[in-house]
Each structure stands twice: as structure tokens, then as C-alpha cells.
Amino acid sequence: MFSSDLTDYVIRQLGRTKNKRYEAYIVSRIIHLLNDFTLKFVTQQFVRLSNKKIALTDLYFPQLGIHIEVDEGHHFLRNSKMEYSLNQIDEPLYSISQTESDPSQNNGQYFPLKIT
């Protein structure tokens, strides 16, 4: 069984994404598929970008040094690419993004995901 401390930690971490539907789904799905709570994870991890600004990655595994960024559709409206220039240890290894699709084919309800 889980301890109440672990349960509270997981709930708090997953709760940080509650206002971002696609991000919440993907992050929750990754955590539940891993099904290994000895592997620590942090949501909304601060990182420094190449332009000296600070951003948040959506999911970070400190033991593995892996950042995962869920690139939601609204990112297409701003910058087509967000460049992360982190030090080598914190370099994002995977970026999960929605591919641009024809809204007439899917009524805007389904957005295919691409993992790079």
C-alpha cells in the first residue's frame, strides 16, 4: 500500500497540471504507465532557457535527468519552436507535441501527438 505522504505527493504533483487538459492527461498517463513510485517525478520544473528567461518543463525525472515538455496546440500560435538550451545534464530528451492537423477532419476534438 501507498503511504499517505506518497499519495499526497503524487496528488499534489498531478494537480499542478489540472488547468491544462492535454498536459494533465499526458503527464498522468506517463506516471500511471510507469507504475513505479520509487522513481521520483516533478511537474512544472523550472529551467533556464538560452535567452536567460525561465520556463517550466511539464515533467521532470531528477533521478534520470529527463525533462519532458508537452507542447500543446496553442504553442503553434506563438513560436513554432521553443529552443531549450539547458546544460547537458538537464537537456530535454523527449518533446511531446501536437501535430498540426486539419480541423475539418476532426472537428477540433482529436490532436495527434508526436514524440521526438
UniProtKB/TrEMBL annotation:
UniProt-listed InterPro entries: PvuRts1I-like_N (IPR048797)
Domain Restriction endonuclease PvuRts1 I-like N-terminal, residue spans: 8-106
One Pfam assignment: PvuRts1I-like_N
Protein name per UniProt: Restriction endonuclease PvuRts1 I-like N-terminal domain-containing protein
Species per Swiss-Prot/TrEMBL record: Acinetobacter nosocomialis 28F
